[in-house]
């Protein structure tokens, strides 16, 4: 998206009266969040609410994708080495995914079988000596960039990173400031995946790409720049919809292991070889989106208090204008999947009941729209014996650390994220623990992950999700919306 000074001025100039009023109310202590937020946060969140609110104009899917998937170029403290992963000749990976979808479903879900396609990704690392505005060195090949990146690593950590964007926006290129920071905090490297976007590529196309990317780290082809990476050095990482990818991929791997006879290691044929399918060292989640139906209470409650994303009550009457990408033919109720598949565990991982064999999980969450679903999954996993590290930040909105640059709570987020990744790879991560981090003071208060995160029962969660699914499908049946509700950019 264009970020030149003139473009920013054009965007913000009409908001001047609103910005001045917000600043005045905050300074006088009259804003409800004055005691929790600094002035910069107050203005940023306020402007975002105005831009994303019910009265804001809605662009077509195609236009939004064009704006948010532009490569802004490589500059600053980041190394970027682009790679292309070729499709295996055999179809085993794809068929293994399809079997898991069928085995985990009710049989009533409808979904489209995607083709296997070459997958684009890039290696990112921290470039310590670069200025913030310095372009990448000229004349280096992608392999030379990768070699330069590796020279600055100080740990074995490899992050397999999936970006956010509600499954239909954004691109790994826009995440370079984030992945560079993660590389700095972990001392490792980040493999950022360009998975296929919906609505052009509905479920399970993105999941197939994520599965292929993981296997490609473990078992690279001869032309890949990296050597084989042991699973115990790989951490899945992702924010928002990238958290959907992380947890769906993890649940897919758990299902493959559950379906394998006890004592045997699951395998699949990949580029001509039978290879093992191990679990990663851990999974690090930032504000993960776990319920595609968007149905739990915090979706509405937190939106009014601390978040900037509009809830379903504000967006359900809005429609994306028709374009070449949307609506689909035949029509589909949801951008990411058929309405009948909304509660499949590989679509909405919150619907998955069994996490018992999972590697350690890290959650960094604000008091945001997605806090209920994140708390439910964390509690469920911890109760099943999974090591869960929970960090909840008071009064913080969705993906606050990436949105609010320079915020002290954001620094704590990245430090905790990096610490978890280093410790799961080193095998030194402590047991399950949770902390609530107070706004401004950053005071830490211990919380009980198994019993203190949420009062929602599994039965109530299921009922909420069923109602959310019915809401999406009812709109489709009414014929009021041939283009689905205009959802916020999770």
From TrEMBL:
This is Alpha/beta hydrolase fold-3 domain-containing protein. It comes from the Eukaryota. The keyword Hydrolase applies. InterPro entries: AB_hydrolase_3 (IPR013094), AB_hydrolase_fold (IPR029058), GDXG_lipolytic_enzyme (IPR050300). Keywords: Hydrolase. It comes from Neocucurbitaria cava. Residues 159-401 form the Alpha/beta hydrolase fold-3 domain. GO terms for molecular function: hydrolase activity. It holds the Pfam family Abhydrolase_3. The keyword Hydrolase applies.
């Amino acid at each position: 998206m264009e970020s030149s000074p003139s473009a920013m001025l054009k965007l913000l100039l009409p908001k001047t009266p609103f910005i001045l009023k917000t600043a005045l109310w905050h300074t006088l202590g009259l804003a409800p969040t004055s005691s929790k937020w600094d002035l910069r946060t107050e203005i940023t969140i306020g402007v975002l609410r105005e831009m994303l609110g019910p009265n804001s104009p809605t662009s077509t899917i195609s236009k939004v994708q064009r704006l948010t998937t532009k490569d802004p170029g490589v500059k600053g403290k980041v190394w970027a080495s682009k790679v292309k992963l070729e499709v295996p000749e055999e179809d085993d990976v794809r068929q293994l995914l399809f079997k898991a979808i069928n085995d985990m479903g009710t049989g009533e879900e409808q979904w489209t079988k995607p083709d296997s396609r070459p997958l684009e990704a890039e290696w990112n690392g921290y470039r310590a000596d670069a200025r913030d505005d310095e372009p990448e060195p000229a004349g280096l090949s992608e392999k030379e960039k990768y070699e330069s990146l590796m020279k600055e690593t100080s740990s074995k950590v490899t992050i397999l990173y999936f970006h956010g964007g509600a499954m239909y926006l954004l691109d790994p290129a826009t995440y370079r400031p984030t992945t560079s920071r993660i590389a700095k905090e972990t001392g490792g490297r980040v493999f950022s995946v360009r998975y296929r976007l919906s609505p052009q590529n509905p479920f399970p196309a993105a999941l197939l790409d994520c599965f292929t990317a993981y296997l490609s780290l473990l078992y690279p082809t001869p032309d890949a720049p990296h050597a084989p990476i042991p699973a115990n050095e790989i951490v899945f990482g992702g924010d928002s919809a990238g958290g959907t990818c992380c947890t769906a991929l993890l649940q897919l791997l758990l299902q493959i292991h559950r379906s394998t006879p006890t004592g045997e290691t699951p395998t699949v044929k990949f580029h001509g070889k039978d290879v093992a399918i191990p679990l990663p060292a851990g999974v690090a989640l930032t504000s993960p989106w776990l319920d595609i139906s968007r149905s739990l209470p915090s979706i509405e409650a937190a939106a009014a208090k601390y978040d900037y994303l509009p809830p379903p009550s504000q967006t359900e009457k809005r429609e994306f204008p028709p374009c070449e990408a949307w609506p689909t033919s035949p029509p589909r109720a949801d951008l990411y999947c058929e309405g009948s598949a909304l509660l499949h565990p590989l679509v909405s991982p919150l619907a998955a009941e069994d996490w018992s064999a999972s590697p350690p999980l890290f959650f960094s969450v604000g008091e945001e729209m997605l806090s209920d679903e994140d708390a439910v999954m964390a509690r469920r996993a911890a109760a099943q014996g999974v090591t869960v590290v929970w960090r909840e930040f008071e009064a913080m909105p969705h993906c606050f650390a990436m949105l609010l640059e320079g915020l002290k709570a954001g620094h704590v987020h990245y430090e905790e994220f990096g610490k978890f990744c280093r410790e799961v790879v080193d095998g030194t991560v402590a047991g399950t623990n949770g902390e609530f981090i107070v706004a401004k003071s950053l005071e830490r208060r211990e919380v009980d992950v198994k019993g203190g995160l949420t009062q929602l029962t599994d039965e109530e969660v299921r009922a909420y999700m069923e109602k959310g699914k019915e809401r999406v499908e009812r709109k489709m049946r009414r014929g009021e919306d041939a283009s689905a509700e205009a959802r916020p950019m999770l």
